[in-house]
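Methods — Computational structure assignment.
A single polypeptide chain was analysed. Its primary sequence is given first, followed by the predicted tertiary structure written as structure tokens.
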Amino acid sequence: MIALKFYMKSFSLFVMLLLSLSPCLLFAANGNDLIERLPSGTINWSIGLITATGSGAPPSSVNNPAQARLMAKRAAILDARRNLLETVKGVTVDAQTTVQNFMTTSDIVVTKVSGVVKLSRVINTRYMSDGAVEVTVEMDMRGDLLKLMLEETGDQKKAFIPAVIPRKEVPPAIKPPSVEIPQAKPPTPPVPPKPLLEAKIQEPPKPPSVETPQTKPVPPPPPEPALEAKVKESKKEDRREEVSEDIDLTKLNYSGLVIDARKLQIRPALIPKIMDQKGEVVYSAANLLQKDAVKMGVVGYAKDVDAAKKNQRVTENPFVIKGIQATGQKKTDVVINNRDANIIQGSDKYTSYLKNGRVLLVYD
């Protein structure tokens, strides 16, 4: 009994130590997939799946082995879905919130999320020699869960369907009978009085003009060296931002966008944003229709730039750039430089890859 207590205490200390580590240690690579491991399950951000495992033991009061195994399987499924719900609570939604934050503030969200978890699929069943059963279940992060989070955050764009208003038939107006009214003669205008003779007013003599001596312009003082350096640096920055104006954006036939966000310590999220150095949003869920965002997700995640270039999401000719900073409370949003932002927004007018959600973030 003492040994069991010591084992449980050691295990709890190990779990606390694991949770206190840096978030990047909770991510693991499975090929080119980005997988986040939580104590209750795993989140595959690359393919958009959440999985969890549960186990069930046969009841000792049942003598029929088949019935006991069936009851053990049911218990394992319930345990797996309970763990799956805990994993879903840990999913990062955006830079400020997780799914659990919405569940703590709304009973409606709790009901809807629980309903989505109950529809999870059993993908693996293991029968142990002692009669116990282990079950693994999975569910999509996209679909109903993402739709619910988009509605809660308000980051959505619905298709505009104009309402059809039936026209009401208005009966023709009835014209009143015309009545002839005799016109009165206009009164004769009064005769204007004769104007008085205007008195001539003699203007006073002008004073003699005096020539004023011209003053020489005073040259401005020479600029300070530090100020002159700042002006030159600002001009360089302006020239860097104007580089995109010299590019023929119509010839940039980009099919998607790949952002290399490695070494920025970003965290994956359901609804991330891409921003420029001015703090303006370049890409977010607002670029997509809700049905498209729910189907494919706001962004995709990969762990290798070369693999990301060949990903079907960005097709054959993506625009590959580097992120410069992770921002937001949970470090889920990526900042890119202003020049790349201008090229993205300019070239998207001709290929619409942002509207189609063809965006991939590369994470290490």
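Note: The chain is about 30% helix and 20% strand.
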